[in-house]
Amino acid sequence: MKKYIDTGKKDTRSGFGSGLEVLGKTNENVVALCADLIGSLKMDAFIANNPDRFFQIGIAEANMMGIAAGLTIGGKIPFTGTFANFSTGRVYDQIRQSIAYSGKNVKICASHAGLTLGEDGATHQILEDIGLMKMLPGMVVINPCDYNQTKAATIAIADYEGPVYLRFGRPKVANFTPEDQKFEIGKAVHLQEGTDVTIVATGHLVWEALLAAEALQEKGISAEVINIHTIKPLDDEAILNSVKKTGCIVTAEEHNFLGGLGESVSRVLAQNHPTPQEFIATNDTFGESGTPGQLMEKYGLNAEAITNAAEKVIKRK
Amino acid sequence: MPKTQQLEDFVTQVRRDILRQVHKVNSGHPGGSLGCTEFFVALYQEILERKDGFDMDGKEEDLFFLSNGHISPVFYSVLARSGYFPVEELNTFRLINSRLQGHPTTHEGLPGIRIASGSLGQGMSVAIGAAQAKKLNNDNHIVYSLHGDGELQEGQIWEAAMYASGKKVDNLISTIDLNGQQIDGSTDDVLPLGSLRAKFEAFGWDVMEIKEGNNITSVIEGLKEAKTRTGKGKPVCILMHTVMGHGVDFMMHTHAWHGKAPNDEQLEIGLAQNPETLGDY
User: Fold this and answer.
1) How does DSSP classify residue A101?
2) What is d(CA B166, CA B168) in angstroms, rounded to the nearest whole number?
């Protein structure tokens, strides 16, 4: 079993900020927009280095999406920054018409996704954004797992032509993927080889999946762990090859089970290789105030929950 | 032939095109299209600095964004007759497998269109973004946008209006089609707009008016005047007074023809009032 080392807890939003800072130096067409959340999105370094390429929009997210669409006309690559809730639900029609349907090269960068936003509570804890974004034709949906991967993803999406939704979070979490990784959109990453059960996870749940695999190994269960950083386009082949070996699967995400990664995986399995599946996700509910740790435990989004789900799904084989 | 007569003939032909497009498919929006015909002809024939051909980035040329996309019949007619695509393609308006969708879109690759519009209130933001890109590219050309007056009931317009003046987007000319009509009735009945001059001035715009928006000479003069006001630290707003349905007597001064096509008999009357000038498609 491979051993993954947490090199020190870091927030994925800082990975975004760091990636954006790199792009500021390497790609003159990259511009950034923010709706009054510079500090939260960690955009300070890009702004300090490239003041002319930054647009402070104010608290007007709909206008931000439209301006971003317009900036592409003239060759710019706009990165918009605000919380996930205000990056999606609040501006769905602007994204749908002015960005997705119009085929504009906008990168919608969304922080504070999911329950781990914490104490601000349910008004800000969107658990529906993956579903909203993946339903838009042509939209790429990415939810990287740690600081290093978020930084790599941020840099990678600038070279992809088309609209992208990049989802990341607020809390400091384990940073365990390689600093020098090559990020390939749509390409799943195998973290553990296993034979009894497949665990596919996205975002903050990937580290929890690795912890679950360790716990399962102590119980004599061999778990395969796959990091699905790109929910759309989904790496069907990686998922199918794994379940053909293990015969069952657990999906894990910080999102509603309706519309999330789990449902995308179910569709692939149902069409190609029907397989027992358990869902680690929120159960059609809003969140609430609390610490990230308390919330992930209460809503069943941690290593313990994944471990239990794995044991349950193995029995369904 | 004097230039003005040529432009008036152009306008008349576009009005025929509008009527024939919506009649053929028994759908579409003739009212606002007829009211904005002089504006589109003036813009594309006299005002816009345009390159040959079409590319999405539109560098080193003026750009236009239609925010109230439902008046696509006038947009399509003027684009076709300005050389962006074959005039015969107007025959495909709203048909299956057409590039001429009910509302304008980039999705089918129709030359001349740079953004999808139809869901209202979004075009001013897009125009601002394109104007900002021009500034970054050191491109001194101007970005134009057109909006319905009813469309100003959408909140995003005012987010954009606040931004454009606050950030000194002074290479932008946004025209408001002030016809006082919307789908359900007059704007006064549905939701009064109040003084748009006072509103845009309060938002920090340089506001001017075109009193006769259905007079080609007045529209050209007004757009030229607007151009002289760019580059002075403020976005420019033109309040353009038009008559919905202008040029077809029974369609004028009412919201009834906002989104309704004429029947065969009504088409004949409308076409008789707008005789063929440049040749029907």
Assistant:
1) I
2) 6
- Conformational region of residue A298, where left means phi above 0, alpha means psi within -120 to 50, and beta covers everything else: alpha
The answer to whether A106 and A147 have CB atoms below 8 angstroms apart is no
Percentage of chain B beyond pLDDT 90 is: 99
Give how far the C-alpha of residue A122 lies from the chain's centroid of Cα atoms, to the nearest Å: 19
Compute the Cα dihedral for A120, B154, A93, A144 and give only its sign: negative
Q: With a cut of 90, say whether residue B1 has pLDDT above it.
A: no
Contact with chain B for residue A65, Cβ under 8 A: yes
Which ranges of chain B does DSSP label H, i.e. alpha helix?
3-25, 30-35, 37-42, 72-81, 123-136, 155-166, 187-190, 196-202, 216-228, 264-272
> Residues, chain B, total?
281
A139: contact with B, CB 8 A cutoff: no
- Match 């869901």 to its residue by tokens: B119
Integer Cα distance of A62 and B159 in angstroms: 8
**Closest Cβ opposite residue B130 in set A53, A74, A102:** A74
Average pLDDT, chain A: 98
Cα B219 from Cα B1, distance rounded (Å): 20
Q: Which residues contact A74 (CB under 8 A, 6 or more apart)?
A: B57, B58, B59, B130, B133, B134, B136, B137, B139
Q: Answer yes or no: do A98 and B126 touch at CB < 8 A.
A: yes
Contact status of A111 with chain B (Cβ, < 8 Å): no
Q: Is the dihedral of CA B11, B12, B16, B19 positive or negative?
A: positive
Q: Which long-range contacts (CB under 8 A, 24 or more apart) does B202-205 make?
A: B203/B158, B203/B161, B203/B162, B203/B165, B204/B162, B204/B165, B204/B166, B204/B234, B204/B235, B205/B161, B205/B164, B205/B165, B205/B174, B205/B234, B205/B235, B205/B236, B205/B237
Tell me the C-alpha distance between B176 and B98, whole Å. 29
A205: CB partners within 8 A, 6+ apart: A145, A252, A253, A254, A280, A301, A306
B120 touches chain A (CB under 8 A): no
Q: With a CB-CB cutoff of 8 Å, which residues 178-237 of chain A face chain B?
A: none
Model confidence pLDDT, tens digit, residues B61-96? 999 999 999 999 999 999 999 999 999 999 999 999
- For A230, list phi and psi in degrees, rounded to 5: -110, 115
What tens digit of pLDDT does each residue of A161-192 get? 999 999 999 999 999 999 999 999 999 999 99
* CA distances from residue B254 to B152, B186, B241, B249 in whole angstroms, order as listed: 19, 8, 14, 10
List pLDDT tens digits, range B102-120.
999 999 999 999 999 999 9
Residue A98 DSSP code: I
Which of A97, A99, A107 is the best residue to mutate to test the B interface, defined by the most B CB atoms within 10 Å of its own CB?
A97
